[in-house]
Amino acid sequence: MDDAVDLDDIDDQLTPTLDTRPTLVFVHGAFSDGASWSAAVEHLGDHCPYRIFANPLRDVVSDGAALAALLQSIDGPIILIGHSYGGVLLSEVGCATEAVKALVFVAALAPDEDESFSDLMARFPGSDLPEVLTQAPLADGGADLYVPESSYGRVLAGDLSDMEVLALARRQRPLHRAALRDPVGKPAWRTLPCWFIYGDADRSLPPALHQFMAHRAGAAGVEVVAGGSHSLHVSHPRRVMRFIERAAMAVEFQVPNLDP
After folding, report:
1. Is the C-alpha dihedral spanning 38, 70, 19, 77 positive or negative?
2. Which residues are in the AB hydrolase-1 domain (predicted)?
């Protein structure tokens, strides 16, 4: 019976080990915080490693350096996921380590070389964000930017309840004005496979802009959520995680035990 097949061995071969599971690194955007990813990561299994980056929201160079340091501290493959301004950092430092295998843009910006947040926003009409931004002057002559509670739902979270919108608005962290105009270097999406998911009711970043960025990046996959707002990862967390799962499998990794 030396040639007998051990079924347990086959099961072991089919089950992803801790060494082959990618770490999912989530990057939140402006006017938000790390907790905005909470609903999405609740759909991950207990054994899927992930990190939520506390984005400083100061400027592209220093924010990118902080993200790069986190990426370089992680062992094994990484899938990098960004929302809104977080996509700027994906573009800036996605190639900071060879461990990053894919980029997922969730209602996120994907600037090209020498292009900034403001440059992209000026490409297409349809954003209500510039007209509602409120500035808080800083001692260094710069300013922090906020979205007022009264405008938060309309511009950033039109598919969430009033209570959810209020929680997001009051928890938001400001973006330094410098981050709007800082250009990125050679973008990581030019060398890494990337995926884009966004809502067709995004009133912060126009759907036409999302479509343009995904096409320009040669996206491996694109999904448009009908009625989805800019806060897609909060309003449709399971759908966003399913999309991330498909991206992971496309680069030959599995996200184990995803909540059905």
Report:
1. positive
2. 24-241
Strand residues in 23-171 grouped as ranges (E) = 23-27, 50-53, 78-84, 100-108, 134-137, 143-146
SS3 174: coil
- Which residues make beta-bridge pairs with 81? 26, 104
Residue 26 bridge partners (DSSP): 52, 81
Around Cβ 258, how many Cβ atoms within 10 Å? 16
Taking CA 251 as the corner, what is the angle to CA 248 and CA 255, rounded to the nearest 5 degrees? 25
Q: Which two tokens stand for residue 53?
A: 């980056």
Average pLDDT, the chain: 91
Q: Letter for the amino acid at 131?
A: E
Asked if CATH classification 3.40.50.1820 holds for the domain at 21-250, the reply, yes or no, is yes
Instruction: Tell how strand 78-84 and strand 50-53 pair up.
Output: unpaired
Tokens (6 digits) for 216: 């320009």
Tens digits of residue pLDDT in 180-195: 999 999 999 999 999 9
What angle, 0 to 180 degrees and rounded to 10, lies between the N-to-C axes of helices 162-171 and 149-156? Answer: 110
Q: What does the block give as tokens for 122? A: 């000026």
Mapped onto helix, strand or coil, the DSSP state of residue 125 is coil
Of how many residues is the chain composed?
260
**Which of 1-5, 104-108, 117-121 bottoms out in mean pLDDT, i.e. has the lowest?**
1-5
* In the chain, where the domains are located: 21-250
